[in-house]
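Design request, C-alpha cells follow.
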C-alpha cells in the first residue's frame, strides 16, 4: 500500500479481480498493523524500556512492512511475466526457478522482520500498560499471523522450484526463528493474553 492510498482503496484493490495486492501484501499489512499497535501500546506504557528510540524503530518497521508489501506485489508481477515468457519461448528451468526464488524473497523479509519484532515484543510485553492488555495481546496474535502468512507464501514459491535443493537456504532462515515462534506461541496462548 502506498503512502497516499487510503485503507478503503487498498481493500477495494485487494477484493478486485486482480492478482495483486494478494496474500503477500496482506501478510505485510498484518505486520504493519502489529507494529503500529505495538508502538501505540509502548507510547502509553511508563514501565519498561519504551524510550523514543524503541518507539521510532517500531514506527520505521511499520513503514518497512508496507514497503515489503509493495515489493511482494512487484516480485509476483515479475514472476507472472517470467512464466508467460516461458510459455511463449520455452521454459528454461533455471530462469523459472530464479523467478520463484525472487518471489520468495519479499515474504521471507516480511517473516524475518516479524520475527525480529516478535523478539522485541517478548522482551517487553509483560511491562506494558495493563489498561491496554487486549491491545498488547492483539500485537502478539497479529505477529503470529504475520509469521504464518509469510511462511505460507514462502513455501508456495519454493515448492514451485524445479530444483528442490534451492529451497534449503530459505528453509534454514525460517528454521532459525523457531525458538522465537515457540516463545510467541506460549505468550499468546496464556489465559491472561486472551
Amino acid at each position: 500500500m502506498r503512502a497516499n492510498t487510503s485503507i478503503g482503496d487498498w481493500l477495494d484493490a485487494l477484493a478486485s479481480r486482480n492478482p495483486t495486492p494478494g496474500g503477500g501484501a496482506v501478510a505485510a499489512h498484518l505486520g504493519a498493523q502489529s507494529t503500529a499497535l505495538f508502538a501505540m501500546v509502548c507510547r502509553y506504557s511508563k514501565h519498561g524500556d519504551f524510550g523514543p528510540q524503541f518507539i521510532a524503530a517500531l514506527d520505521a518497521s511499520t513503514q518497512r512492512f508496507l514497503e515489503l508489501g509493495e515489493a511482494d506485489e512487484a516480485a509476483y508481477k515479475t514472476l507472472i511475466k517470467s512464466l508467460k515468457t516461458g510459455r511463449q519461448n520455452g521454459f528454461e528451468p533455471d530462469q523459472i526457478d530464479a523467478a520463484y526464488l525472487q518471489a520468495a524473497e519479499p515474504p521471507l523479509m516480511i517473516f524475518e522482520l516479524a520475527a525480529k519484532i516478535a523478539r522485541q515484543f517478548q522482551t517487553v510485553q509483560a511491562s506494558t500498560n495493563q489498561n491496554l492488555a487486549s491491545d498488547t495481546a492483539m500485537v502478539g496474535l497479529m505477529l503470529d499471523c504475520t509469521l504464518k502468512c509469510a511462511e505460507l507464501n514462502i513455501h508456495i514459491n519454493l515448492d514451485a522450484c524445479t530444483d528442490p535443493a534451492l529451497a534449503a537456504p530459505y528453509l534454514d532462515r525460517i528454521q532459525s526463528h523457531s525458538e522465537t515462534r515457540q516463545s510467541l506461541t506460549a505468550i499468546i496462548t496464556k489465559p491472561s493474553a486472551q
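Comment from the thread starter after seeing the answer: thanks! The chain has one domain: 7-193.
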